[in-house]
Specification:
10 strands, six-stranded mixed sheet, alpha/beta, single chain, binds adenosine-5'-triphosphate, binds magnesium ion
Length: about 240
């Protein structure tokens, strides 16, 4: 078993006249927390959509855990152990938390049993909310439920699209603490505009700019790179 978990080569995506990704190469090792940053519209969500099978790319290869996954359906990719959360949280608002979790257990070959689900829910600080309607929860709680729905499937890689977007500074601290523990359970890939998340969690960071890789390396080096400051960090309050 190689220690490379995810390998993308020459991944490209066009939307009509917009080139969202231009030949991205990216390697993520098992256990390595990878951060992806870059300005609005630079292609970060598109990259995750291509990897998770929610969009089909125009070219390039994607290998996950030794399997070629480009062009496969999201459910096949999830069954291989790659899952993701969404920039706009996705839970079933009319269902209770328990019912939301039950939807995630259907057709999941490695799904946890009841005891494991309860243990995860307590760890995620959401076990006491199982009978609440998901739509009545705070955004942080909804993100915790979304994480639980993915984790009960025991993924090898969890891709998180802006996990602290819209949260208060206190809630950001809670989510960072949860994600720091999550790193012990599976490999994480995290898109963020909040650099505190990247500094505290990422082992490696990739910067996208207009669909191309601008920089890549250790967070301390990349966040101090003058090109990254000039073209991204200098314009945001993070
Ligand atoms: N479904 C789509 N149809 C057409 N264009 C799209 C679609 N999805 C993304 N794009 C375009 O592709 C480019 C990259 O968008 P993407 O959402 O990947 O950016 P992002 O880096 O995630 O930005 P943000 O930080 O704002 O979330 C943008 O120009 C966007 O308008
Ligand atoms: Mg995005």
């Amino acid at each position: 078993m190689t220690d490379i978990l995810l390998e993308a080569r020459g991944v490209s995506k066009r939307f009509g006249g917009v080139i969202a990704l231009k030949g991205i190469d990216l390697v993520q090792r098992r256990g390595e927390a990878l951060g992806m940053i870059g300005p609005n519209g630079s292609g970060k969500t598109t990259f995750v959509n291509l990897i998770s099978g929610h969009l089909k790319g125009n070219s390039g290869s994607i290998c996950f855990d030794g399997q070629a996954i480009a062009g496969k359906h999201p459910y096949q990719i999830a069954q291989a152990g790659l899952t993701r959360t969404y920039q706009a949280v996705r839970v079933f608002g009319e269902l209770t938390v328990r019912e939301n979790i039950m939807t995630a257990l259907v057709d999941a070959p490695h799904a946890l049993g009841q005891h494991g689900v309860g243990e995860l829910a307590d760890w995620l600080r959401i076990g006491h909310r199982f009978d609440a309607r998901a739509g009545s929860l705070t955004l942080l709680e909804q993100r915790q439920v979304e994480l639980l729905m993915r984790l009960v499937q025991q993924p090898k890689l969890m891709m998180l699209d802006e996990p602290v977007g819209g949260l208060s500074s206190v809630e950001v601290r809670t989510m960072i603490a949860i994600l720091a523990e999550l790193k012990q359970r599976c490999t994480i890939f995290v898109i963020e505009h909040t650099m505190k998340v990247i500094r505290e969690l990422a082992d490696k960071v990739v910067v996208l700019l207009a669909g191309e890789k601008l920089a890549e390396g250790r967070p301390a080096d990349v966040l101090a790179d003058q090109r990254v400051i000039d073209r991204y960090l200098g314009n945001i309050d993070a």
